[in-house]
Write a structure and sequence with these properties.
The protein is of the alpha+beta class. Among the domains are: about 110 residues, Immunoglobulin-like (Sandwich), CATH 2.60.40; about 110 residues, Serine Threonine Protein Phosphatase 5, Tetratricopeptide repeat. Helix content is about 15%, strand content about 50%. The chain has a 22-stranded antiparallel barrel. The protein is globular, with a radius of gyration of 30 Å. The two termini are about 55 Å apart. The N terminus is likely disordered.
Length: about 725
């Protein structure tokens, strides 16, 4: 292959990088979003599908919009690219407004954008399991809500008569009679009779009085000394209705019921959780398009030539289904989860793909402290490396003593056979110890002994992990990460040190570069010791460390900086070199040099609520050096603005230039704009358009590439 064709192909690959990333981006980062009350605050926990390193959040006080920045910790499957614009929504509760969580820029600087229905005061910290974030939300001040007088009696308007809709008219007339009966019972202080009348009305098809009846059945319950049941009715009212004169009043009653009560009888009633079940999730579909053009200029026979190459490199429709059914009562918190991604590739010769990321049933008994999850899932800890089909169960309290078991088969969406594993772990307070055995085709694949340590106190968090492979007798992975928030100065420190085999050490690594997908075929031509050594030779060592600091300058401005060091070791030549005229099923992998130490220095200046109650602006820059890059500089500007919880605009501009150690230079501009419209409470539309403009020059030729890309999609939440 000529230098010229090699150069053009390398630049074409670079031009198609974004397309490839979107094509392979099918892993869902978000696992669950939940809200719990603790003392007088609400804790919103955002759980992700793998471990992450918390960097910072902005703004640092009160706002309607929140951004959480993090780094994804290297996993067992680094090609499992996380998707952008994955959304989870949490409904309104007594102490928190409704809010949404959206993933952004997963291939660059990953972050979560959290948008609340109204302005709230919050703080953010890393979760104790190192794969979640906890948002502490301070509720609005409640002034004498518990003493708020209950309204006297409902106003019952005459029924609406519509001759064109006799059935609706009949429902209105029945509702009118039941509404009057409920009002008369309230006047007589016969609260059970009032409750019965309103419930009968609510059993009718929706009619003129349905919304009022849902409000007043809560009043009847509360007056009858049933605050827990009244709370359920009020919560259902707010779930069903978002407008009307009763909405604000019902919110006030809920806040009043949340306050401490004086009698022991009512305290007991408040602690009870009424059984309830619900389904929530979303369906989204987005079309992606990309087109690239590359002009390459070079010298040929003492003449200057320019070759032009154009291609539609992306045309795909990616659809997501995310559904969770949940049942909660005093004892249980059970759920069924299904998440699926379907990619229809419209490029010639390309195939469609469908990936079920999650499909499991979870049973949890909160009083007896045992739980089980069956199906396709990801789990934190226990030595399991990635997504699997199987079961994970546990018994006991993690703070006292808990025993866990896990068994299943890994799923990495390849045609190769997948390993089977089983393991046990024990949790005692902040310490967890596990043992896991894994086989492939009946052959030992991995046997790990490891442990985790968690520290979580106030603004200080730390997480340590160690995984040692007994079969290979090597350290597979070790990590230490943490953060420290100094509230007095508004300063946050974060750090991480990570060392691991890449990919995770196992016998399957011997198949990298082999002419087979079966380890049994390899054992037919080599011993177990030789197979194990081949796996070692095809497994690299990677090290990563980062130190960061964030400083709050004012209520609207924050300054952040990070120093990052990363290195992946080289690989020796392995297998049988075909240049000798001899080939083998084990194949041949040429020696691969170390990447050298990559050093990155990054700074960010972030402003929030500069001109509204929901805007964030980021100015950033970085300096990079590595074994390949002599020097690289980048500048980044980003803005997000929303209006009235309906319109959202994201604009960004990214500039990067570098000089490599071989005389090559490159400069790249990437402007992007995205607009979104919350058409209805459940339906949103969005569109994105961007361009990537690159100039590259080397000792023998130069090239100019232009890539335009865009997407158009919708999301329906239910």
């Amino acid at each position: 292959m000529s230098k010229n064709s090699s150069f053009k192909q390398s630049h074409l690959v670079y031009g198609l990088l974004l397309s490839a990333m979107t094509w392979s981006a099918c892993a869902a980062p978000l696992d669950d979003v939940s809200v719990q009350q603790q003392n007088n605050v609400a804790l919103a926990t955002i759980k992700l599908t793998t471990q992450v390193h918390f960097l910072r959040y902005v703004p640092g006080g009160k706002s309607r919009i929140l951004e959480i920045y993090y780094e994804r910790i290297p996993s067992s499957n680094p090609s499992d690219v996380w998707v952008d614009r994955e959304v989870r929504k949490a409904p309104e509760t007594m102490l928190t407004p409704a809010f949404s969580v959206t993933t952004f820029d997963q291939a660059g600087q990953p972050k979560l954008v959290v948008e609340f229905a109204r302005e709230v005061e919050f703080s953010v910290s890393a979760g104790a399991d190192n794969r979640s974030f906890v948002i502490t939300i301070k509720p609005e001040k409640i002034e004498a809500q518990s003493a708020l007088a209950l309204p006297l009696l409902p106003t019952v308007l005459p029924p609406v008569i519509d001759k064109a809709a006799p059935e609706a008219t009949d429902n209105n007339q029945q509702g009118y009679k039941l509404m009057q009966a409920g009002r008369d019972a309230l006047a007589a202080k016969n609260y059970p009779a009032a409750t019965e009348a309103f419930n009968k009305l609510l059993m009718l098809p929706p009619n003129q009085y349905s919304q009022d009846a849902q409000e007043w059945v809560g009043v009847a319950r509360e007056r009858g000394g049933e605050p827990a049941k009244a709370k359920v009715e009020y919560e259902l009212y707010l779930k069903l209705y978002t407008t009307g004169p009763g909405v604000q009043w019902v919110k006030q009653r809920l806040a009043g019921l949340a306050l401490p009560v004086t009698t022991a009888k009512m305290e007991t009633a408040e602690k009870k959780i009424a059984p309830r079940s619900f389904v929530q999730g979303g369906i989204s579909s987005r079309y992606y398009y990309g087109q690239s053009k590359i002009d390459t200029t070079y010298q040929f026979n003492n003449a200057t030539r320019t070759d032009t190459y154009s291609i539609v490199d992306q045309s795909s429709l990616i659809s997501n289904v995310d559904a969770t059914g949940r049942y909660v009562d005093e004892t249980h918190d059970n759920r069924i989860v299904f998440r699926d991604v379907h990619t229809k590739n419209m490029l010639p010769g390309k195939t469609d793909r469908n990936r079920i990321n999650s499909a499991y049933v979870e049973y949890k008994n909160r009083t007896e402290d045992y739980s089980a999850r069956l199906g396709r899932q990801t789990t934190g800890g226990g030595g399991v490396m990635g997504r699997f089909d199987g079961i994970a169960a546990g018994y006991g309290s993690p703070q006292d003593f808990r025993v866990n078991g896990v068994a299943g088969q890994l799923v990495d969406f390849t045609f190769a056979k997948q390993p089977i594993f089983y393991g046990v772990s024990v949790d005692k307070g902040p310490v967890s110890i596990y043992l896991l055995n894994q086989t492939l085709e009946g052959i030992q694949d991995r046997r790990a002994l490891g442990g985790e340590f968690k520290y979580f106190e106030g603004g200080k968090t730390a997480f340590a992990m160690l995984d040692y492979d007994i079969y290979f007798k090597v350290l597979n992975a070790t990590m230490l990460t943490g953060s420290w928030l100094v509230e007095a100065t508004g300063t946050t420190y974060n750090f991480i040190a990570d060392y691991r085999k890449s990919p995770s050490i196992n016998i399957r690594n011997a198949l990298n570069g082999a002419a087979t997908t079966s380890v049994k075929d390899l054992l037919a031509v080599m011993s177990e010791a030789q197979l194990q050594q081949l796996a070692r030779d095809r497994t690299a060592n990677s090290a990563f460390s980062q130190l960061g600091i964030s400083q709050k300058l004012s209520p609207t401005w924050q300054l952040g900086g990070d120093i990052k060091l990363a290195q992946t070791g080289g690989l020796p030549a392995s297998g049988i070199d075909p240049n000798t005229g001899v080939t083998g099923v084990q194949g041949y992998v040429a020696a691969y040099p170390s990447t050298g130490m990559e050093k990155t220095l990054t700074a960010q200046l972030i402003g929030s609520n500069l001109y509204s109650e929901a805007d964030i602006t980021t100015f950033g820059g970085s300096y990079i050096t590595s074994g390949y890059v002599k020097s690289g500089q980048s500048v980044f500007v980003y803005n997000r603005t929303s209006w009235d919880n309906e319109y959202y605009v994201d604009t960004s501009w990214y500039y990067y230039n570098q000089t490599d150690n071989y005389g090559g230079k490159m400069a790249r501009h990437t402007p992007t704009v995205r607009v979104a419209y919350q058409m209805l409470q459940e339906l949103s539309l969005d569109a994105e358009f961007g361009a990537e403009l690159s100039d590259m020059s080397g000792p023998f030729q130069t090239s100019v590439s232009t890539r335009i890309f865009g997407s158009l999609g919708f999301r329906w939440d239910f």
